[in-house]
Amino acid sequence: MRRIITFFILAIGFISCSSESKSNFQNSDIYGKWNWVSTDGGFAFHIHDTPASTGNSIQLSLSKDNTFSITKNGKEVVSGKYELTTQKSIYSGETEKYITCEMGENKETLNIVTKGIITIDDKNKLSISDNFNDGVGSGFVGIK
């Protein structure tokens, strides 16, 4: 009996200590088209890319059917499926929304983060931060 109780307590402990949750959720605030504004971060905060500094206009489109597309200078360069989950954020320590855009074999240099903690401010600004120390984050503005 003692072994069963010990096993039960250990099992609950392992389940509750998981740092990642794969439970899907829906968030209608992210659906639509987003213009890339900047990508910043990296080791010693050395990355500061913008459309002006790179000469590239990038647009991220997120659809309700969990598909995405990315256009660069008006030409679609990648499309595929994305997944919405939750993950413990290194920034807040809390469980946050997390997006993963499956890029496949795409070798295109896009200057944007497509996998990370996702936040929406003022219902018109979206950010994706890669959730790593010395990480990189990209900011977007919604298109109406």
Which helices and strands appear, and what pairs or packs with what?
Layout: H1 2-16, E1 20-21, E2 32-41, E3 47-49, H2 51-54, E4 58-62, E5 67-72, E6 75-88, E7 95-101, E8 115-121, E9 125-129, E10 136-142
Helix content: 10-25%
Give the helices and strands as they follow along the chain. Answer: HEEEHEEEEEEE
* Low-confidence runs of at least 5 consecutive residues: 4-8, 10-26
Total number of strands: 10
Largest sheet: 8 strands, antiparallel, barrel
Summing up helix and strand content along with how strands pair, one would put the structural category as: mainly beta
Shape: globular
Give the neighbour order of strands across the main sheet: 2-4-5-6-7-8-9-10
How far is it from the N-terminal to the C-terminal residue, by CA?
Answer: 63 Å
Q: Radius of gyration, rounded?
A: 18 Å
